[in-house]
Structures are given as C-alpha cells and as structure tokens.
Amino acid sequence: MENPYKRKKEPEVSKQLILAAAAEIGALDWHRVTFQAIADKTGLSKGGIIHHFRNKEDLLKELMNQSLAELTEWIVEEKKSSGKEVGSLAYLRFIINKSNDLFYRRTMKIITQVILINAEYRKGWDEWFSTHIGNGDDGGQGIKHLIVMLVADGLWYSDNLGVYDISDKKKQQILETLIKL
C-alpha cells in the first residue's frame, strides 16, 4: 500500500520554485534572500533547498545563468528572424518586450544589484555582452550600434531601478526611431 503522506519528488519543479522565490524576495534587496526566507515562501525545507543550491552564491549563479541563457536565446532568434547580425537592436527589442515579464524583471533587478556591487559578476556580464551584443567597435556602424546599446541599457536600468515610468508605447517609439538610424 502506498503511503498517502509521502511527498512526490519533483526536483525540477522544486528548483524553479526556489529560483522564483529568490527572485521575488531579492528583487528589492538581494541581502534579504536567505534559505529560511525561501523555505517560508515555498513551503520547502531548508534541507530541500540546500539539496539544489549549496549556498546563496550558487543560487545567484543559477539565476544569472538562467537569465543570460534566456537572453542569449532571444537574441539569437531575433537575429535570425530579422536577418540582421546587429545584436544591439535584438538586445533593445528584448529589453522592451520583456519589461512586463514579472520573473524576468525580478531576476534582472537582482542582476542589476549584483553587477553594480560585485566586480566578478560585472566582469561576467561584460564578457557575455561583448560576445553576444558587441562593444560598439564594429566599423562604420560602431557609433549607431553604441547608441542603441546605451539606450537599451538606459531602459533596462530604468525598469529595474524604477527611475522613470516609460510606457510601452514610448518604448516602441524609441525602438522605431532607433531602427531608422
């Protein structure tokens, strides 16, 4: 006879639940993320959380890796669909189109906090960015590319730091204007 109280093990579901809870708790202040806070939010045990992530640093790395993997996938698809290799426009489209995605926003708020205060993560972000977006030094289009990157970064920081309240319509107008460059 099967024990009705035995919990079904769903490791990937638990892992995603932990990541979502960490993103929600840490969106305003990464220092508030503790295994106890995650356990309280998810109903999982601290031991269950530690099974997936040995420490807070491992959890942060997974959130960062997951976000960068999603961003990379989106940019690759955008480049394919537009037939252009200009990563800055794909990056800008991603920033605009994902700005209303709650999990993305929470995760990117954490990344924003961490890259602002942690040189190791800032270096990793810079490496990822140079590889997938570029650095604005691509010949005659360099300055246009750099302008688009800086606008995308400005929108990204604005969304994640809550500095300006820019409507979706205004964001689309910005994109359309920059495409004409």
Please summarize what this structure is.
Residues 34-53 bind DNA. The protein has 181 residues and is mainly α.
Give an overview in words:
Residues 11-71 form the HTH tetR-type domain. One of its GO terms (molecular function) is DNA binding. Pfam families: TetR_C_28 (PF17937), TetR_N (PF00440). The chain is mostly helical and 181 residues long. The protein has a domain at 60-179. It has helices spanning 11-26, 35-42, 46-52, 56-82, 87-98, 102-117, 119-132, 142-161, 168-179. α5 (87-98) packs parallel to α8 (142-161). The chain is elongated and about 55 Å long. The chain starts with 10 loop residues before the first helix and ends with a helix.
Helix content: over 70%
Number of helices: 9
Shape, principal axes of CA atoms: elongated
Mean pLDDT: 81
Keywords: DNA-binding
Domain HTH tetR-type: 11-71
Organism: Pedobacter ginsenosidimutans
Protein name: HTH tetR-type domain-containing protein
Characteristic key phrases:
73% helix, elongated, DNA-binding, DNA binding, HTH_TetR, Tet_transcr_reg_TetR-rel_C_sf, HTH tetR-type domain-containing protein
Spell out the blueprint of helices and strands.
Blueprint: H1 11-26, H2 35-42, H3 46-52, H4 56-82, H5 87-98, H6 102-117, H7 119-132, H8 142-161, H9 168-179
Helix pairs in contact: 1-2, 1-6, 4-5, 4-6, 5-8, 5-9, 6-7, 6-8
